[in-house]
Write a structure and sequence with these properties.
Chain lengths: ~210, ~300
């Protein structure tokens, strides 16, 4: 815990957590407290943004300070007691061969290492329900495409840099496509609309 | 609130959407807040027709809309100042206007400002998505932008109309915008905040509901490397590597990776959202009320 609390305008503050594990812990603690004036809690790799409105800022500040000082077990990323989602993947992605070439692995090794990676949802961004899955086997780190595709189908399972992701909806995208899943990770009529939440553990298995 | 097809969009103008107060509470799932860019004008339009402030209104960009109403209804036009006509008769802004059944409401080009709001008594009752009827131009959530032929349902309300005309100050030609420093002003040279406030920045034509892209004195970073992505707020002044600031508006991405040198004071955000390309805005450093300053944690 290295952090500071940084003011973000009049209605928000950014807590520096220094690690994803601490971001997830603080996110879970603050969410559990259901502070009335808090509108958003947004965990990031090394920070948590808390947006409040119409409340007494001094009080919220004190609550956050208290939550920060509560010591949790400093372990792996992932909220305590978070759910595990098993994702069945059809490994037939158009970039599978290229990834094998870039990593010097055989295609079946790429698949095995992807399935063997202990993924945790780090945070969401880029698009609604787009979860950055951390924990990718370092042997699978590849750069994103130099020119993004104009459309990647919903359910595409992809990797780029140190992350994996499942495209929640059809969108442009520059990640390398390993395969696809039928699992619906985003449903705007569900509550919550995203199956994957910060801290959710994710395991990939061949379909 | 029920809703029947009441409003036919004859002409939407350059860009028109349905907006309410947005969809807070989902930023951690990658969902922008969205909602009316100038929430103050949208709220006023609702109050003038007896709606709660949370009702959905139409947000026009550069005016230019023609709407036909299948039944008689009270409307109120607020925001960027436009000529308004009902059946060829000139009407005023910022007060309730009666539109008879089958009549057309015509809204011209704004003489000042960018976004004009049409509040309709009963509110626009398109299907909400994640609790909001707002069109999110970044993620595509919510109803599609208005097109010729779009038909919009309108609800009902029992509240009284109690105001004839709201006094509204005209938009400043060169707005002065309060900025609260941080959270990442320490990623810039010590002079950067002074540079931000030294000369006006011009709003460029690449601006939209996501953000205002500005052009002016570049803000120089003192730290290189990448900032891990972190949560963003409306009004955040994000600085990409070219040093030209971007002010985030309603449809901003919930997280971002460029350092934020300062945040626009919330009471000045509606005026920022009304800046059309070519407007010059001047920033001024201001303190935030109530908050203690940034401080290190004891841990």
């Amino acid at each position: 815990m290295t952090g500071a609390m940084r003011r973000v305008g009049e209605d928000a503050l950014l807590v520096e957590t220094g690690s994803l594990a601490e971001s997830h812990r603080l996110d879970a603690v603050l969410r559990g407290r259901r502070l009335a004036a808090v509108e958003e809690i947004v965990p990031g790799p090394e920070s948590v943004l808390v947006v409040a409105s119409g409340g007494s800022f001094g009080e919220i500040w004190a609550q956050i300070e208290e939550a920060v000082s509560e010591r949790g077990t400093q372990g792996q990323a992932g909220a305590p007691g978070a759910a595990e989602v098993v994702v069945e993947v059809e490994y037939d992605g158009v970039d599978l061969e290229v990834v094998a070439e870039l990593t010097g692995l055989r295609v079946d090794e790429v698949i095995a290492r992807h399935c063997g990676s202990p993924f945790v949802v780090g945070w969401l961004g880029f698009a609604p329900g787009f979860a950055y899955l951390v924990g990718l086997d370092p042997a699978l780190e590849v750069p994103r495409l130099e020119v993004p595709r104009t459309s990647v189908p919903a359910g595409s399972v992809a990797i780029a840099g140190g992350y994996s992701a499942i495209y929640p909806a059809a969108s442009p995208g520059g990640w390398r496509l390993l395969g696809r899943t039928r699992m619906r990770v985003w449903d705007e009529h569900a509550e919550p609309p995203s199956l994957l939440q910060p801290g959710t553990r994710v395991r990939m298995v061949p379909a | 609130m029920g809703g029947f097809g009441v409003i036919e969009v004859v002409e939407p103008g350059p860009y028109a959407t349905v907006q309410d107060l947005g969809r807070p509470g989902y930023a951690h799932l990658g969902v922008p807040r969205s909602g009316a860019a100038d929430s103050r004008s949208a709220a006023l339009a609702n109050r003038l027709v007896g709606n709660p402030e949370s009702a959905a209104v139409i947000e026009l960009t550069f005016g230019g809309a023609v709407l036909r109403f299948a039944r008689g209804v009270w409307v109120a036009i607020t925001g960027a100042f436009c000529p308004v006509e009902v059946e060829g008769r000139t009407e005023g802004m910022s007060g309730p206007v009666w539109v008879p059944a089958n009549a057309e409401l015509r809204i011209g080009m704004p003489s000042c400002g960018l976004r004009t709001y049409v509040g309709v008594r009963g509110g626009i009752t398109v299907e909400p998505v994640l609790g909001s009827r707002s069109t999110d131009s970044l993620s595509g959530l919510g109803p599609r932008p208005l097109q010729r032929g779009t038909v919009l349902p309108v609800g009902s309300t029992g509240a009284m109309l109690s105001v004839d005309l709201a006094p509204v100050a005209p938009f400043a030609r060169q707005p002065v915008v309060g900025v609260i420093r941080g959270p990442r002003d320490d990623w810039f040279t010590p002079d950067a905040l002074r540079d931000l406030c030294a000369e006006p920045y011009e709003v460029t034509s690449e601006s939209n509901r996501v953000g205002l892209r500005l052009s002016g004195r570049p803000l120089i970073r003192s730290r290189q490397g990448e900032l891990p992505s972190e949560g963003m707020v409306s009004g955040a002044i994000q600085v990409p590597p070219n040093g030209q600031p971007i002010v985030f508006l309603a449809d901003h991405p919930p997280t971002g990776g460029y350092p934020v040198i300062g945040v626009v004071r919330s009471s000045d955000l509606p005026a920022v959202a009304q800046c059309r390309p070519g407007t010059r805005i001047r920033f001024r450093l201001t303190g935030a009320q109530e908050w203690p300053p940034t401080k290190p944690m004891s841990a």
